[in-house]
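Customer ticket, subject: "Can you confirm the structure for L-lactate dehydrogenase?"

Message body: Hello, I'm evaluating your service for our small team and ran a test protein. I'd like someone to confirm that this is what the system normally returns, since I don't have a reference to compare against.
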Amino acid sequence: MTRKVAIIGTGNVGAACAHYIVSSGFVDDLVMIDINEKKVKSDALDFEDAMANLPFHTNIFVNDYSQLDDTDVIISAVGNIKLQDRVEPDRFAELNFTSKAVVDVANKIKATKFDGKIVVISNPNDVMVSIYQKITGLPKAHVMGTGTLLDSARMKRAVGAALNVDPRSVQGYNLGEHGNSQFTAWSTVKVLDHSIAELAKNDGLDLDKLNEDVRMGGFTVFSGKKYTNYGISTAAVKLTLAILNDAYIELPVSNFREEYGVYLSYPAIVGRDGIVKQIQLELPKEELDKLQYSADYIKSKLPEEYK
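Agent reply: Thanks for trying us out. I re-ran your input and got the following:
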């Protein structure tokens, strides 16, 4: 069975996704689409030049929406992160620009025979997932965002560094909006089978300071190089592979939660059919209140026609 993925938007993030996919031989066919034709054609040729020194072959197609007819997963990396270059960091700075671009792309997807899954990186993430789902008419379970999969990885990096363990030894989630109202659900965080509350007490960890480190992680990277790409592209490819592999893996991604009436990040089981099962966490009231606040914030920013 041929594996086929499309990346729409091949700037710093989309190109990093493509490089990870091509260098690892994850798919047979890769479709690359971008409004900057010179850039996307150059990237495709660059990858083809790499083929002779890779153990895998990938067929690459450029700027051809008809190739989406039999594509398994589309990764949307449409956006303009430079709009976040401001005193007060806010992913909603991209809302006007990216929503227009996403509406255009979503209508082009709808005009094809595409019947796969969409993984959205574009920011503000939860709003863009909603727009893609509404315009394409795909089932809600088939359109999802990377959401706090990246924020949760940043939390694991911060906690791991504080306790001198590999981030993969940290369990737990960041929930809500992929943006300023996201938060670390400390009640879910465990390290080597010990709760973070227990470890914080014993080791003198400042959880508020760690949470701020996580919340500002992306902007710290952005302030240094004016974009982020490796962390988010790795998250997007992990989510894409969960779909392609029918992995049934639990991931904190942006998925539509009926109880909040909006897309937001909450753990779900991901497989070939997209969001195959939603998890129900036992959260304390403080974290439930934060999650409700985050949901309300997303809804307040969602254009009326996409609610």
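A couple of notes from the result: The chain has a mean pLDDT of 94. The first strand starts at residue 4 and ends at 8. Feel free to reply with more questions.
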